[in-house]
DNA sequence: CCCCGCAGCGTACATTAATA
DNA sequence: TATTAATGTACGCTGCGGGG
C-alpha cells in the first residue's frame, strides 16, 4: 500500500489497534518503522493524531543497547553521537501523521468522535490536570492564586472574568499543614476583607493552646470561583478559606475591590461578582453600585475603566447609576433552582409575560414522548429536592425547549426592552387604581406627582436626601492597608514574646505542664521514643524536621512533640453536622 | 433509616427611640 | 443635630420529632 497514493484514511483504518495496527504499519511503511511503534508501545491509529515525528524518534537519540539494530536500519549516528533518521523514513512518517490528523480533524468537524478518540482526549486532559496539580503547589488556605488565574485566563484566551463567592457550613477541625508549617482550621482575621494566609504559625505549644482556647474555629468554608467569559471555559478556584461567618458588608466590598485590583495587575478585568442572598453581600453590592449610598472615603473609579450602562431615556423609574465598575447577579444556580421550585410548585403560579407556565407541559412531554427525546425523569418534576441543579439543567436543555416550542400552547417568551416598559406601565396603572380606591388621586394630582416620570423624580429626590441614604465612612486608601497590617503583626509578636522560652517553664502554664508530665510519666519506661495512645513524644529529633515539632518541657527535660500530635492532644470535642447534612457536605 | 417541617439560635442590618 | 441603644427583620443553620 502506498500512503502517497492514498487521499484519505478510511474509518476502519482509523479504528485499527494492536496486531491489526502493526500489520497495517508493516504494509504501508516498513518492518523497521513498525518495530519503532512497537518499541514506543503505540497501539492505536488514533494515538497518532496527537504525536509528532520528533516524539516518535526521540528514543533513538538515546543510548539504548537494545535499539542499536533498529537505529542502524532507520538512520545514522554521527560522530557527535547525534541520530539522524533516513529521509525516506521521515517522509513516510510525516505522510502517515498528516493523514491521521486530517482524518481526525474532519471527523471532529462532523462531531463524529469515535470512542477511541474521546478516550485519548480524556487521557490527555487527565495528564494535563495531573501535571498542573503536581507542578503548582496545592491550594493553600486563604491564598488568592492570581498568577494561576492569569495562566488560566490565558488558556481561555479571554481577559474578562466573572467571580463568584459563597460560604457553606462545615465541620470544624484543627490540623497541622506541614507544607506551610501552619495550623489550619482557625478562622483567619480579615485585613481589608481578605483573610491572612499562614496567620496561625507558631513554634510555641502554649501559643497553640491559647488559640485553641480563644481563637474561633472555622465553621464555614468560603470559596471564590472565577470563570472566564468564554462560555466553553471551565471554572477556576481562586481561593478557599475557613471563616467564622463574622464579617461585615464593608469587608465583602473591600475583598471584591482587592480581587479587582490584583486581577487588574495581572491584566484581567473582573466584570462582576455573583453570590447568594446573604444580606451582607447584598449590602456590599448596594455600596459598590452606589444605590442611594455614599462612600465619601473611597474612590471606586481610580482606574478609569468603569462600565457605562446605557439606560433608556424613558426609564425615569430606573434608579441605578450609569457608571458602574461591576455587574452583580445572584449566582445563577440559585436562580435556576428557585425558578424551578416556583415552576413546580403546586400553590404558586409562575407567570412569564402573558403566559402562565406550569409543569403540565413538561408532564405532558414525559407522558407522550420517549425519554430519548427529552432525557427527563419523573423526579425532575417533583419539587422534593429543592436544590437539584441537575434537574434544572435537564428541564432547560435545548432538547426540551425545542419540544416545548413545537407545542402551540407553550410558547417561548422573549423579554425585550419594550416588554419591560410595558410591565412597569401596567404595574403603575394598577397602582393608580388602588390610589383611586382610597381617594388619593386628587391629592397626588395637586402635588404634581400623578404621572410616572414625575413620581419617579419625586421618589428619587426623597430617597437621595432622606435618612434612607446610607453613608459609609470606611476608608479605602492604600495607607490603610499598612496600618492594618502592622496592627496584626504587633498582635502576633505580642503573643510570641509573651510566650518566649523563659516563660514557658514559668508557673503561668503549670497546669499544662503537669498534664504533659502525666502523659510522659505514664508512658515513660526506658525508651527514648514513647507511644501513648498514638501520641508520640521524642527526646531528640532530626534538625531538618525541627519546625514540624514543638519544644516542650517535661520534668525539666526538653522533649519534642509533633505539631499534628499537639492538635490531636488539644482537640477535646468532635464537632459534627447532623448526619444528613454531613452527606451534603461530603458531596 | 431517611426526609421534611418546625422552632430556636446566631449573625448582620435597618429602623426607631433615647440621649448628649 | 449627631450619636448610641434598643428593637425588629431576614436568613441560614441546628436539633428534634413525626411520617413514610
Individual helix count: 24
The major β-sheet equals:
5 strands, mixed
Low-confidence stretches: 133-137, 476-535, 573-587
Helix percent reads 40-55%
> For the largest beta sheet, what order do the strands appear in spatially?
9-8-3-10-14
The oligomeric status of these chains comes to single chain
- The gyration radius over C-alpha positions equals 34 Å
Proportion of strand residues? 5-15%
Shape: extended
Q: Count the beta strands.
A: 21
Q: How confident is the prediction overall: mean pLDDT?
A: 70
Distance between the termini: 55 Å
Helix/sheet category: alpha+beta
Care to describe what's here?
With 587 residues, this protein is α+β, with helices and mostly antiparallel strands. Among the domains are: 11-113, no CATH class; 136-298, no CATH class; 417-471; 500-570, no CATH class. The protein is 45% helix and 15% strand. It has 24 helices and 21 strands. The strands form 8 sheets. A 5-stranded mixed beta sheet has the order 9-8-3-10-14. A 4-stranded antiparallel beta sheet has the order 18-19-21-20, covered by helices on one side. α9 packs parallel to α23 (563-570) and α10 crosses α11 (279-288). The protein is extended and about 105 Å long. The model is unreliable at 133-137, 476-535 and 573-587 (pLDDT under 50). The chain binds a DNA duplex (20 and 20 nucleotides) through residues 169, 219, 245-249, 276-280, 283, 384, 467-468, 470, 577-581.
